[in-house]
Amino acid sequence: MTEQTLLIVKPDAVEKKLIGEIIRRVENAGYEIKNIRMLTLEEQRAEAFYKIHQDKYFFKPLIDFMISGPCVPVVVEGQYAISGLREMVGATDPNEAAEGTIRKDFATNGRRNAVHASDSSESAVREIAFFFDNQSE
Ligand code: CMP
């Protein structure tokens, strides 16, 4: 089944000049890049994107991190792209991420973890619209 998902190259990975390397991995795995942009999130937009985590202890530092510099949202398409990208990205904390995953190789810690990838088809639809549809949130 062909799916689209949202990948975000987060500010830590942009700062480390890893945009190309991360996209290269995604393309090498057979996925297509369907859309891409670079922006610096404003605080309210970051809070809206991560509203599901608003009661978590890590919410405020997460928002501060996400607005600290530019990020690169990317629409990725391919067979079972949602689960496939989650697998490529690895666990939230790089210490728990499998060998060869993006976070294992590039994340600094559980917050500054290089990338985000949609966790479900509902999230993918919402998150793609969030960055690529002017009418969204
Ligand atoms: P992401 O996959 O974008 O989804 C939520 C983000 O919150 C996560 O990546 C991390 O950047 C951050 N996060 C999740 N859990 C923790 C945690 N325990 N401590 C700090 N940050 C976290």
Do you know the CATH topology? Alpha-Beta Plaits
CATH architecture: 2-Layer Sandwich
User: Beta-strand percentage?
Assistant: 15-25%
| CATH H level, superfamily name | Nucleoside diphosphate kinase-like domain
Poorly predicted runs: none
- Per DSSP E runs of 2 or more residues, the count of β-strands stands at 4
What's the order of the H and E elements?
A: EHHEHHEHHEH
- The top-level CATH class is Alpha Beta
Q: The biggest beta sheet, please?
A: 4 strands, antiparallel
Strand order, largest beta sheet: 2-3-1-4
Structural class: alpha+beta
Kindly state the mean pLDDT as a whole number? 97
Please report the distance between the alpha carbons of the first and last residues.
28 Å
**Cα Rg:** 14 Å
Tally the helices. Answer: 7
Number of domains: 1
In this entry the ligands are: adenosine-3',5'-cyclic-monophosphate
Helix percentage? 40-55%
Gross geometry: globular
Walk me through what this model shows.
This protein is an alpha+beta fold and 137 residues long. It has a single domain, classed as 2-Layer Sandwich (Alpha-Beta Plaits), CATH 3.30.70.141. The protein contains seven helices and four strands; from the N terminus they run E-H-H-E-H-H-E-H-H-E-H. A four-stranded antiparallel β-sheet has the order 2-3-1-4, with helices on both faces. It is globular, with a radius of gyration of 14 Å. It binds adenosine-3',5'-cyclic-monophosphate. Adenosine-3',5'-cyclic-monophosphate (CMP) binds at residues 53, 58, 62, 92, 110-111, 113, 116.
Short recap of the structure:
The chain is of the alpha+beta class and 137 residues long.
